[in-house]
Structures
1.
Amino acid sequence: MAARTVKLAVIPGDGIGPEVVAEGLKVLSAAAPEHDLAFDTTSYELGARRWHATGETLPDSVEAELRGHEAIFLGAVGDPSVPSGVLERGLLLRLRFAFSHYVNLRPVRLYPGVTTPLADVAPEDIDMLVVREGTEGPYAGMGGVVRKGTPHEIATQDSVNTRFGVERVVRYAFAAAQRRPRRRLTLVHKDNVLSFAGELWQRVVREVGAEYPDVSVDYLHVDAATMFFVSQPQRFDVVVTDNLFGDIITDLGAAVAGGIGLAASGNINPENDFPSMFEPVHGSAPDIAGQGKADPTATILSAAIMLDHLGLEGAARAVERAVAEDLLARAKDGAAERSTAQIGDAIAERVAGQG
Ligand SMILES: NC(=O)c1ccc[n+]([C@@H]2O[C@H](COP(=O)([O-])OP(=O)(O)OC[C@H]3O[C@@H](n4cnc5c(N)ncnc54)[C@H](O)[C@@H]3O)[C@@H](O)[C@H]2O)c1
Ligand SMILES: CC(C)[C@H](C(=O)O)[C@@H](O)C(=O)O
Ligand SMILES: [Mg+2]
């Protein structure tokens, strides 16, 4: 019997979700024996198929079952056959909110051998950790529509920023910055326009920052930040930002660090009051679904973030090392075309071969 059995809920979801999740699980299984681990997985059929069959996005009974797991491993949700937002809000955001995933952790890292569209950058130039707020901002679902269908229709979408919500994510970001060699935190917002929310974020960063005198603090408006992500990625170490800005800049981060197929994330509840959820940054990619073309690396790296969160650092490093080796090998092979399963097999083989 393994020394540690992780009770893991799996939500493959839609589009390429099931394809990439299968490879993530393959790599976890390969890592398990070396690290005296086992995964007790339960797969949940949630997403477009279930919605079409039953009209359900996330039944309360399933949410309650998910709560009883140590972690959730998710592929992606969203399908062109379902109205936009039904699954994204009804499943993904519902889980992030219900399980208080207030830290959406999104590392942006250029691995050696990976091609970036940026000129003259080395891997050490792109190494940041975006700490995206995960439960508030314009995602909160507040607002509405009046005079619908008339020429005077008004749609509002409020951004919710609570002192409690901002402070807890800012504290997490400072603590993360303090553990990193450069000890630098950049707040990204738009306080020249979003003055109420921006001022709250600024004030909280100033106040919490007083407790972290060894962390240097910087501020960028989000528009300028997008420019510097491309022109001077070296500027960034830890970035803390609101839910929507964080969504946008992490797709950009993915693009500068080698593509969306490599970008990993964790939806973290740091107190472990609820299971945290791990998923690639990308979506269900309907344009390539079912063709074995999706890169599962983002999902595999999300599994490594999960292992870290579960306190299984040895296994996490082994998975990361296997990915790093595979990425280097890809560079040497002249990026030979491989299927989703072939990439998963190669990484699983490397991870099984490591101590
Ligand atoms: N966390 C999630 O579940 C999540 C995240 C983003 C988008 N979505 C949903 O996914 C659907 C599609 O959204 P989208 O097209 O804006 O974003 P997307 O990330 O699914 O796709 C954007 C582009 O990136 C490519 N791509 C994505 N993942 C890839 C991978 N692993 N390997 C290779 N190429 C990859 C796609 O083929 C597409 O061309 C929508 O329903 C959206 O709401 C879900
Ligand atoms: C699908 C959508 C709700 C989601 C988000 O905006 O958070 C996605 O884009 C992401 O980045 O995880
Ligand atoms: Mg996104």
2.
Amino acid sequence: MDCWQQIKQQLRQRLNAHDFSAQNSAISQYQLEFTPDSASDDVLAWLKGQCCYPQFFWQARESATQCVALGQVNYFTELAAAQAFLTAYPMQQLQLVGGLTFEGEAHFYLPRLWLEQRAQTWRITLTLSADDQQSAVEAFLQGLSPPLPLKQVQTTLRLETQNYSENEWQALVGEALAQIEQGHFTKVVLAQKKTYRSDTAVNPYDLVAQARVQHADCYYFLWAQTPEQVFLGASPERLYQRDRQRLITEALAGTAVSSDDPQQTEQQQQWLLQDRKNIHENRLVVEDICAKLANFSQHLDIESLTSRKLSYVQHLVRKIAAKLYPDADDSTCLSAIHPSAAVGGLPDRAALNFIATRQNFRREWYAGTLGVMSLANSEFCVAIRSTLLNQDKIMIFTGAGIVAGSVPLLEWQEIERKAAGILLLFPA
Ligand SMILES: C=C(O[C@H]1C=CC=C(C(=O)O)[C@@H]1O)C(=O)O
Ligand SMILES: [Mg+2]
């Protein structure tokens, strides 16, 4: 019997031993630790083999742990309800996965199965609730499949539509600049959506595997509530990481080119660190995040400006740390900080209103936030540098912050460069 059969069998044994009639604890969790047969096994490959939804893959930046959530025990479409649920089970340290779309819709799951891979050790957690039917959980376990190997992506993409031509984009940037000039807001982040068709079916799990190789130092995520719509990406941006009352976040905004020419990259870095428009663009994000955090933090620390190099672009970044008041939970933090001025604007209400009325598409998960939350700790990324796969359609999203001093042509070049970075995932 292979290791996957054994795991299924062990989970089934736990299920059979579980007393569904005992209502003393509404949520029960069973954990198994194991080492897969093959050292090259990877939770992403395991997820590729599964046909149950929702699915979530997550690897936080600076973390070696890769996580997968499969299936659902509970589903929340209100952030407050998700938070209240966690608060109702203080002893169990339950973890919810999900996030908020750019427009603020909440989608959180308590997953049926949670897999964590740290080096060669995998930990599986099966969650059962008092409302579960034993037969439904049995069917879920029966449906678990072995991993499928991850493959190199190879495809030719054909651009079908883009929401803005270069001229249309520049006109929209001009409109935003006029509003900034008139004092309606100081910053707005505009976005582009490009829709491609591929000559062969593109596998989303292979794309995430490609992203892990191509884009170092990022958050890697895959989020599929149904098989038809798979959202994935490699984002350099943290919304926040919280460990009890300690929260760290960052203002990531302001962009220059980065390439495999070290001299050009170095010269671009020097330019970026001194460029007034980019420094202003970044400073507005610091102001936005700090003003929001100040409402529920005992103190804030703001580090000095540095730059972060990625494979195709580099950004200005300032790290921010906060000590939260004890009653500030993830519901407080998420609803206050998201969307930050790195993807929305400042002041946020006026900028978000401009986006809602002038931007010709709804962003949904692009520039939303995804992550994992529990009572003790949580981490969320800003879901930029992302792609939505919808059958054979591939949509890629990019945005750029518009501030006083923005040059429409340069903002076009910035989103084109960001798009080229995402397109690296689709080698012909
Ligand atoms: C909104 C995006 O980037 C944000 C993050 C870093 C730099 C940005 C900029 O320089 O405009 C954006 O604020 C995106 O890549 O889609
Ligand atoms: Mg920019």
